[in-house]
Amino acid sequence: VKAFLQFADKQPSAHLYMIYHTEELLAELQQLLDGSQQKDKVILIGRVPNLDLQNWYNSADIILSGSHYEGSGTAVCEAMSCGCMPIVTDIFSFRMITDNGRCGLLYEAGNGPALLAALMQTQQIDIEEKKKTSLEYFKTNLSFEAIAGRIQEVAESLI
């Protein structure tokens, strides 16, 4: 959030909508926002029913994740299925999900300056093109159809 607030200083049209399941850091986050001139750029949404997530993803250009570890990256995959460009931490699962960053941007987990640099990089890249790349990669590699096709290929190779 600190990196995003710095980015919002330079990019006034940027907004961060935070969807989260737990609130253990909410007081600390609210204190951080209260001390910022850009606090209106961060909108705390909280818990959203799974069925409503598609609406959020469809209205966003970018999904941002700061995970230090992730088993499956379901939220990022779901966002990519709606055409969001991922800005995610450079961890194994996200490297695979983003085709080593080809579909989005990777940054070091826990590194605020690296996140800020990734956010700043969005000013130089064609986000619409990255969104198309993300959606196409999802369809050909991460969708149920793509996964089922690979499983079928493996199964047929065993016969």
- What is the number of helical segments per DSSP (H or I, 4+ residues)? 8
Summarize model confidence as the mean pLDDT.
95
Structural class: alpha/beta
Strand % is 5-15%
Tell me, briefly, the overall form.
elongated
The separation of the N and C termini measures: 52 Å
Any overview of this molecule?
This protein is α/β, with parallel strands linked by helices. The protein has 8 helices and 5 strands; from the N terminus they run H-E-H-E-H-E-H-E-H-E-H-H-H. Strands 3-4-5 form a 3-stranded parallel sheet, with helices on both faces. Strands 1-2 form a two-stranded parallel ribbon. Helix 1 packs parallel to helix 6 and helix 7 runs parallel beside helix 8.
Write the layout of secondary structure elements.
Elements: H1 2-10, E1 16-19, H2 26-34, E2 42-46, H3 50-58, E3 62-64, H4 74-81, E4 85-89, H5 92-97, E5 105-107, H6 112-121, H7 127-142, H8 144-157
Parallel strand pairs: 1-2, 3-4, 4-5
